[in-house]
Specification:
Layout (H helix, E strand, L loop, with lengths): L7 H75 L7 H37 L19 H7 L1 H7 L5 E3 L8 E3 L4 H13 L9 E3 L2 E10 L6 E12 L2 H9 L23 E10 L2 E8 L4 E14 L5 E9 L3 H6 L6 E3 L4 E10 L2 E12 L2 H21 L4 E3 L3
Parallel strand pairs: 8-10
Antiparallel strand pairs: 1-2, 3-4, 4-5, 5-12, 5-13, 6-7, 7-8, 8-9, 9-11, 11-12
């Protein structure tokens, strides 16, 4: 007996075929979209490299043109200096000699600069040590605030001269990297995004060392795919806003909490950590880089902001924000190495809110990339130790039980 097209069996077969066709079409569509995105990224990278090559060629042409003009000018001065001028002026002769000496010094400066770049290049090659060799730090750290570190940093000096980018070396022969400076807009954008992510207020679940604990569940970064652990710790301190601000802002940059650490790293290995200033936008806005030595060097570029302000209720407060930051230019320029690991998705925010002239509320937000739930628990223990040390440091301040 022949099945009618209108029977339930025929309708079911037609429905299954329709669903299969829709599923197949969606799968093809997703594959096409993924391939289109990959092609867009390849084209963007290609255009970026081509643009930089053209800019470099143009700069070299301008350099050659300027050098030719200088040579012609110096040759004319040299020729005129050998001839006795009709007006024998000592000032004229002195100016000629100064011009010639200045050109000679310029040549010597260029030669020294070339030697410096050559030295940095070979230093970068020599620093590619085998993974089995652990670099032992040799530099003695001198306590200094972030402002002092920025004043002494040659990288900050490069940024002030509006250098397009430069090779960053470390004091203990760690592998170098090329850094493109942040724009003010990029810096502010990272800070704004960070503070927006801290707008929620998790519930209090307990106390530790006099601090209220507001844990947040593990989340996964949609872009990087990494797990992110987050906790908020709050308390009330018998201390003026001015004194608390001064204590943090003048603290040694090497004593700041590390935003994140490698899995096998244990506290007490601070001698393997080095922090350098890269940029300074103003007295309260800095870009730094931190490197933790090891068989694999663990490092991150971080943006640091001190922000005194009045909150939405008109109450005075001071925020300290430190967050791992990156730009497209730096991500593309970063060399892929087996002996260097770059961290991400980590930072902290300290908020001092004035209660009265002698009391402040302290909010300490902390988050970091995590490989597993077990590591997240280890991070929480480490963060609790940080606030415990902070409390010990402020021995003259009396903790007030927060309600």
């Amino acid at each position: 007996m022949t099945t009618s097209p209108n029977t339930p069996s025929a309708a079911t077969s037609s429905s299954l075929a329709h669903q299969w066709a829709e599923s197949l079409t969606k799968s093809w569509s997703d594959e096409v979209k993924d391939e289109w995105r990959r092609e867009q990224r390849r084209q963007n990278s290609k255009r970026f490299r081509t643009r930089k090559q053209h800019e470099l060629i143009q700069l070299r042409r301008e350099q050659d043109h300027l050098e030719l003009q200088v040579k012609r000018f110096v040759a004319a001065l040299s020729q005129s200096s050998t001839q006795k001028p009709t007006n024998s002026s000592e000032l004229y002769s002195a100016l000629c000699r100064l011009a010639i000496e200045g050109e000679t010094l310029m040549r010597e400066k260029l030669l020294l600069k070339q030697e410096l770049y050559r030295h940095e290049y070979f230093l970068g090659i020599a620093s590619k040590t085998p993974e089995s060799v652990v670099v032992v730090p040799k530099e003695k750290k001198i306590p200094q605030s972030v402002l002092d570190a920025s004043k002494k940093s040659r990288w900050v000096a490069y940024a002030r001269r509006e250098q397009y980018g430069w090779c960053v070396n470390f004091p203990n022969e760690e592998p170098s990297f090329f850094f493109y400076p942040f724009t003010r807009e990029e810096f502010d954008g990272v800070i704004k995004t960070t503070l927006a992510g801290l707008s929620t207020d998790p519930l209090v679940v307990g106390k530790i060392f006099g601090w209220n604990v507001h844990p947040a569940p593990l989340t996964r970064n949609a872009e990087t795919g990494s797990l992110v652990a987050h906790v908020r710790l709050t308390t009330r301190v018998k201390c003026s806003l001015k004194d608390a601000d001064a204590m943090v802002s003048s603290s040694d940059v090497n004593s700041w909490p590390l935003l994140t650490t490698p899995t096998a790293w244990r506290r007490g290995d601070e001698t393997s950590v080095s922090t350098q200033g890269l940029q300074q936008f103003d007295l309260n806005s800095h870009v730094l880089v931190t490197n933790i030595c090891g068989q694999v060097h663990f490092r991150y570029v971080h943006l640091d902001l001190r922000w005194p302000r009045e909150n939405e209720n008109g109450i005075r407060e001071v925020l300290y924000v430190a967050v791992v930051g990156d730009t497209e230019a730096n991500a593309q320029a970063r060399e892929s190495r087996t002996d260097v690991q770059w961290a991400r998705d980590s930072g902290y925010c300290i908020r001092f809110t004035e209660v009265n002239e002698t009391t402040i509320d302290v909010t300490y937000d902390r988050w970091s990339q995590s490989e597993s739930e077990n590591q997240a628990q280890e991070l929480f223990v480490d963060w609790a130790q940080v606030v415990c040390r902070w409390s010990q440091r402020a021995t003259s301040f009396k903790l007030i039980e927060s309600g």
